């Protein structure tokens, strides 16, 4: 796909992420895999101000275009693409319920069968490291080898998928799961969970189930 078209899709996805209430201000960032590297949102720029020209190309060696500064989190986006060859889009946000669970430093357990959207029986929580650091990208790489989404301790959420629409859909589903978890956790701890055997069945069914939108 043309660079400008992808850049427009990134911006539209950013705006939709805010519209869905998943993010605010200059928090969060979005990328797509592109020509061996990625196209990614610039650092510290409110989404409403973005134009196609602001989207930054970062190559496989982490080099980026002169005059542009990519998201401070380009390293963990790169780590996701390395950990998950099928992923073409990465979404990061500070969604309130995901971030609240991350502060508790807990994974979201199998409280609902939709947990399987993340590719397993939980949404894990990657250990804390300073934003933008290599250490954080190393944690993300380890966790994302087994999942399509992870919480980041004391920080937020990362979700990846084969395209932007699906990545945003996944991020939204995980935020709903986080909200359900916190709601039930206020009543009972530990929260009842589905057995691994049932999640294995759902994971199998999800191979032919998911968001259906034409690219
Ligand atoms: C401090 C940053 O907001 C950090 O939280 C980062 O993870 C983020 O979400 C937005 O940073 P960029 O604007 O650099 O993408
Ligand atoms: Zn962040």
From TrEMBL:
Cofactor binding mode and count: Binds 1 zinc ion per subunit.
Keyword line: Arabinose catabolism, Carbohydrate metabolism, Fucose metabolism, Lyase, Metal-binding, Zinc
Domain Class II aldolase/adducin N-terminal: 8-182
Pathway: Carbohydrate degradation; L-fucose degradation; L-lactaldehyde and glycerone phosphate from L-fucose: step 3/3
Binding locations of substrate: 28-29, 43-44, 71-72
Catalytic activity: L-fuculose 1-phosphate = (S)-lactaldehyde + dihydroxyacetone phosphate
One Pfam family here: Aldolase_II
One cellular component term from this protein's GO annotations in UniProt: cytosol
Cell membrane recorded as keyword: no
A single GO molecular function term of this UniProt record: L-fuculose-phosphate aldolase activity
InterPro entries with a match to the protein in the record: Aldolase_class_II_sugar_metab, Aldolase_II/adducin_N, Aldolase_II/adducin_N_sf, FucA
Enzyme class: lyase
Cofactor(s) needed by this chain: Zn(2+)
Site (Plays a key role in the stabilization of the transition state and positioning the aldehyde component): 113, 131, 209
GO terms of biological process kind: arabinose catabolic process; L-fucose catabolic process
Residues the record marks as active site: 73
Binding site for Zn(2+): 73, 92, 94, 155
E.C. number: 4.1.2.17
Signal peptide per UniProt: none
Family statement drawn from the similarity comment of this UniProt entry: Belongs to the aldolase class II family. AraD/FucA subfamily.
Subunit record text: Homotetramer.
Function: Involved in the degradation of L-fucose and D-arabinose. Catalyzes the reversible cleavage of L-fuculose 1-phosphate (Fuc1P) to yield dihydroxyacetone phosphate (DHAP) and L-lactaldehyde.
Protein name: L-fuculose phosphate aldolase
Gene it is expressed from: fucA
């Amino acid at each position: 796909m043309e660079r400008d078209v992808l850049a427009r899709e990134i911006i539209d996805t950013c705006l939709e992420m805010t519209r869905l209430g998943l993010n605010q201000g200059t928090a969060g960032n979005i990328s797509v895999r592109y020509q061996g590297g990625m196209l990614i949102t610039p650092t510290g720029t409110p989404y409403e101000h973005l134009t196609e020209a602001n989207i930054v190309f970062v190559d496989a060696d982490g080099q980026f275009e002169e005059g542009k500064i990519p998201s401070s989190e380009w390293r963990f986006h790169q780590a996701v693409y390395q950990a998950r060859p099928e992923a073409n889009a990465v979404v990061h946000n500070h969604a309130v319920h995901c971030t609240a669970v991350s502060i508790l430093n807990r994974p979201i357990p199998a409280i609902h069968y939709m947990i399987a959207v993340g590719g397993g029986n939980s949404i894990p929580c990657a250990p804390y490291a300073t934003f933008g650091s290599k250490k954080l990208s190393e944690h993300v790489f380890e966790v994302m080898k087994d999942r399509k989404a992870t919480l980041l301790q004391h920080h937020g959420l990362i979700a990846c998928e084969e395209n932007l629409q699906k990545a945003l859909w996944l991020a939204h589903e995980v935020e709903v799961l986080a909200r359900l978890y916190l709601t039930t956790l206020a009543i009972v701890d530990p929260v009842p969970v589905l057995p691994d055997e049932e999640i294995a069945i759902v994971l199998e069914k999800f191979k032919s189930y998911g968001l259906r939108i034409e690219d």
